[in-house]
Amino acid sequence: MYVEVIATHQQVSKDDLEGKFVVVIDTLRATSTIVTALANGCQQVFPVATCNEAKVLSTSWEADRVLLGAEKRGHPIPGFPMGNSPRSFTPDKVAGKTLFLVTTNGTVALQKAHSASSVVLGALLNGQRVAEYIVEQEPEEVVMLCAGTQGHFSMEDVISAGKIMGHIWDRRTASANELAIAAFQLYQVNRDQLVPLMAQTAHGQSLLAQGDGDDLDFCLQEDLFPVVPQQTLSRVRLLAGYGRNSPYGQKENSGSCGISWHGSLGNA
Ligand SMILES: O=C(O)[C@H](CS(=O)(=O)O)OP(=O)(O)O
């Protein structure tokens, strides 16, 4: 297995991802939000790039089954009551609903991955379960596509990739590109201080400035939701057998948000 971490979705084209096994990561906040919504009972999510697209697509569903969520550069959008705060996607709001979500970076990265053969969504909230799924599937090549922030490297996405890399290496050998190795090291060194570290980053600072500091704490919890969301065509659902209510998921979701991991570098 070869694992490649890519720092921003702007570094790849749809063609580059064609036929690949891709993990899209946008820890602050799109993939954390989608993981949370699905784990809390949302039926399915359509990540879309524009508000217009979300409105047009949503008209095909019964109005009382639809949720509209959107933000642009961290700001709420009129007509999209759900925003992009994972903490607002509680079971009472999302159970049985179809969510159309528009965000600045994450949903654009997810749309770019439409050409991939398999697309799963990763975050710190579900990183270990995603790694287990990758190991079980044994793809020859894995691309961890970090959404980044407006074309720039995002520490939180790369650290999440490093966590997933570590869980893969804990279970099997795999070769990796240099960013994957760096991501692994970054996670290892900082795993006990994620909140203060992320509070220094550009995205952390902007969340704090807009009053969403609690999202930072929420999104930096590890393995709160042992689920694997999978994007098929344009829709994201929990992978059967890897959902919150699977026996596997229940067993793992023992209430601890922390992990116990003592991985070592695998051989190429
Ligand atoms: O909602 C977010 O936190 C970001 C907005 S931005 O990066 O601050 O512009 O969107 P996302 O697509 O989830 O990275």
From TrEMBL:
The keyword Magnesium applies. One of its GO terms (molecular function) is magnesium ion binding. It is an enzyme of class 3 (hydrolase). It catalyses: (2R)-O-phospho-3-sulfolactate + H2O = (2R)-3-sulfolactate + phosphate. Its EC number is 3.1.3.71. Its cofactor is Mg(2+). InterPro entries: ComB-like (IPR005238), ComB-like_sf (IPR036702). It comes from the Bacteria. Keywords: Hydrolase, Magnesium. Pfam families: 2-ph_phosp. The keyword Oxidoreductase does not apply. Belongs to the ComB family. This is Probable 2-phosphosulfolactate phosphatase. It comes from Heliobacterium mobile (Heliobacillus mobilis). The lineage of its organism: Bacteria, Bacillati, Bacillota, Clostridia, Eubacteriales. The gene is comB.
